[in-house]
Amino acid sequence: MSESGEPQNSGRREALKKMAMGAGAAWFPILGQTVTPAMAQAAQMHPAGPDAPAPDPNWKPLFFDEHQNATVEALSELIIPATSTPGAKAALVNRFIDLWLNDEEADRQKKFYEGLAWLDARSMQTSQKPFVELTPAEQTALLEPLADPENSKPEDQPGVEFFQEMKDLTIFGYYTSKIGLEQELEY
User: pTM of the full predicted structure?
Assistant: First the structure.
């Protein structure tokens, strides 16, 4: 908690909000991603987008298996957690990423699969449990070196690259959702 009583993550969310409001869709390439046709299509079809019907309670991933989906959901919620507004989980960011990857090129899909596998392997190596079975504190501890832009350890580079892509996709997916647009950006 900060001195104002707000969760510490609210400062990060405020920065993301300002970045999104200040530059619209043009800010996304700054984060290291290029908006691909599949990404633009997924944003239009976002399962929690402004014009989307109520989320399907029987939804099943198109691209991920159940474990991979749970990992993406946990990661996205760590990146944009619920505070005074809903987080990435409520914005169905995992469904957005699943939809995007389902229509993405095979090499991009393979790279994402490899990133998820790398994360679970590192988790098994350090904690003898897959990432989704770690406590939130353990998950955060595992991700901290991957979030460090100055981390140049060769053994961490696959994780650093994957986590950067995961952050970029989470931000994009969140701010193309109804929650991100209307509750965070008040658009």
Answer: 0.75
| Burial environment of residue 163 by CB neighbours within 10 A (0 to 12, 13 to 18, 19 or more) | buried
Interatomic CA distance for residues 81 and 97, integer angstroms: 17
pLDDT (tens digit, 9 = 90+) per residue, 37-46?
A: 555 555 555 5
Q: How far is CA 80 from CA 89, 177, 179, in A?
A: 8, 13, 12
Q: How far is CA 142 from the centre of its chain?
A: 16
Residue 143: CA atoms inside 13 Å, Cβ hemisphere, count?
24
Residue indicated by tokens 């939130």? 136
- Confidence grade of residue 48 (pLDDT, cut at 50, 70, 90): low
Burial label, 106 (beta-carbon count in 10 A; 0-12, 13-18, 19+): exposed
Q: How many CB atoms lie within 10 A of CB 81?
A: 17
Q: What confidence tens digit (pLDDT) does each residue in 103-129 have?
A: 889 999 999 999 999 999 999 999 999
Whether the Cβ atoms of residue 143 and residue 163 lie closer than 8 Å to each other: yes
Contacts of 36 (CB under 8 A, 6+ apart): 104, 108
| Angle, helix 66-79 to helix 106-127, in steps of 10 degrees | 80
